[in-house]
């Protein structure tokens, strides 16, 4: 490979990961000039270009050194890593960061009348999937012998067509499974979009460019996952409430003018709050609970 002085990132051209992926790059300060064919986008703000491709091609592009980084589902990356592993080789790419979107799971689903009591129930069946290496690996780890039928799409209709007895496919809401009278019985991989890069550190100028991009990305991910929590609570219940907060650091506790009994609390927290968590915090004594998004942050 010739040395390059510009970094190249591969992302999905169109599909479930494209919008959120482009958004993340934009938030990291990268702007691209779209080319007419929309495959190669020249980076205008940094020496970082974007290649828009099919998601399945991303690990291979990194392996060949055509691209340096890629935004791809963990399912695709792990499948292709396992293909190397099963040949006794080390994959030339690795997962650098988790990106928090495109969440789904690779699950085994069976027809409604199939009796599933555990992995052993799959012995001797035909399993349709687009992820044969992940499937074979799971079967090996569970000591089950079954036939893996590789299909590139429409896996969910394989049982109806008589091509397979059960399937292993990506699931997010489960609506597709339900529409095909299939029942999810086991999840073999939790997936989300990840930033992939070469297993060996990048040489020449690209190493420094990649490190700078990762620093920015970490900042963007940290802000996105941070929330400012504000509330009031009686001093007697303060400890209980603080224990329920996924606080990043010690919360700020402030006196309330004219109310010696209560305090105001402000805390930077990680991750999203579920309604259940909010109700627990309220039940522990919090009043006027507010969760605010963080716009920018400089530690
Ligand atoms: P391409 O044309 O790029 O090959 P594709 O059809 O293979 O596209 P998409 O359906 O856009 O891919 O899915 C891309 C990724 O989105 C998946 O590999 C997976 O990581 C993630 N994803 C999240 N939820 C789901 C879901 N319910 N079904 C399929 N993929 C999902
Ligand atoms: Mg694909």
Spell out the blueprint of helices and strands.
Layout: E1 7-12, H1 18-27, E2 32-33, E3 40-43, E4 48-53, H2 58-63, E5 69-73, H3 74-86, E6 93-98, E7 104-111, E8 126-129, H4 132-141, E9 147-150, H5 158-161, E10 166-171, H6 175-179, E11 182-191, E12 193-198, H7 204-224, E13 226-234, H8 238-243, E14 252-256, E15 259-270, H9 275-283, E16 287-293
Parallel strand pairs: 1-4, 1-5, 8-9, 8-10
Antiparallel strand pairs: 2-3, 3-4, 5-12, 6-12, 7-10, 7-11, 13-15, 13-16, 14-15
Helix pairs in contact: 3-4
Bound molecules: adenosine-5'-triphosphate and magnesium ion (MG).
Adenosine-5'-triphosphate binds next to helix 3.
Structure write-up:
By secondary structure, this protein is of the alpha+beta class. It is built from nine helices and 16 strands. The chain has a seven-stranded mixed beta sheet with strand order 2-3-4-1-5-12-6, with helices on both faces. Strands 9-8-10-7-11 form a five-stranded mixed beta sheet. Strand 2 (32-33) and strand 3 (40-43) form a beta hairpin. Helix 3 (74-86) packs across helix 4 (132-141). The radius of gyration is 24 Å and the shape is flat. The structure holds adenosine-5'-triphosphate and magnesium ion. Adenosine-5'-triphosphate is lined by residues 12, 15-17, 54-56, 73, 75-76, 102, 104, 170, 172, 191. Adenosine-5'-triphosphate (ATP) binds next to helix 3. Its cofactor is Mg(2+).
């Amino acid at each position: 490979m010739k040395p390059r002085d510009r970094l190249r990132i591969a992302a999905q051209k169109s599909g479930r990961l494209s919008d959120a992926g482009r958004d993340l790059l934009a938030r990291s300060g990268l702007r691209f000039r779209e080319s007419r064919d929309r495959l190669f986008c020249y980076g205008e703000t940094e020496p970082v270009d974007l290649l828009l491709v099919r998601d399945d091609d991303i690990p291979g592009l990194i392996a060949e050194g055509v691209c340096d980084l890629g935004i791809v589902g963990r399912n695709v990356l792990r499948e292709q890593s396992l293909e190397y592993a099963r040949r006794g080789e080390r994959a030339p790419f690795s997962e650098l960061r988790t990106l928090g979107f495109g969440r789904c799971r690779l699950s085994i689903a069976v027809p409604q009348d199939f009796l599933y009591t555990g992995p052993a129930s799959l012995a001797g069946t035909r399993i349709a999937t687009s992820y044969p290496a992940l499937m074979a690996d799971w079967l090996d780890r569970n000591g089950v012998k079954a036939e893996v039928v590789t299909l590139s799409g429409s896996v969910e209709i394989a049982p109806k067509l008589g091509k397979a007895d059960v399937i292993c496919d990506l699931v997010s809401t489960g609506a597709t499974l339900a529409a095909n009278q299939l029942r999810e019985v086991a999840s073999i991989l939790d997936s989300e979009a990840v930033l992939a890069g070469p297993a060996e550190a990048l040489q020449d100028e690209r190493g420094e460019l990649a490190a700078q991009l990762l620093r920015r990305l970490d900042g963007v991910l940290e802000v996105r996952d941070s929330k400012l929590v504000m509330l009031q609570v009686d001093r007697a219940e303060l400890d209980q409430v603080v224990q329920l907060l996924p606080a990043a650091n010690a919360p700020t506790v402030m006196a309330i003018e004219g109310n010696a009994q209560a305090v105001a609390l402000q805390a930077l927290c990680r991750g999203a709050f579920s309604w259940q968590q909010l109700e627990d915090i309220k039940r522990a004594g919090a009043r006027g609970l507010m969760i605010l998004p963080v716009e920018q942050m400089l530690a």
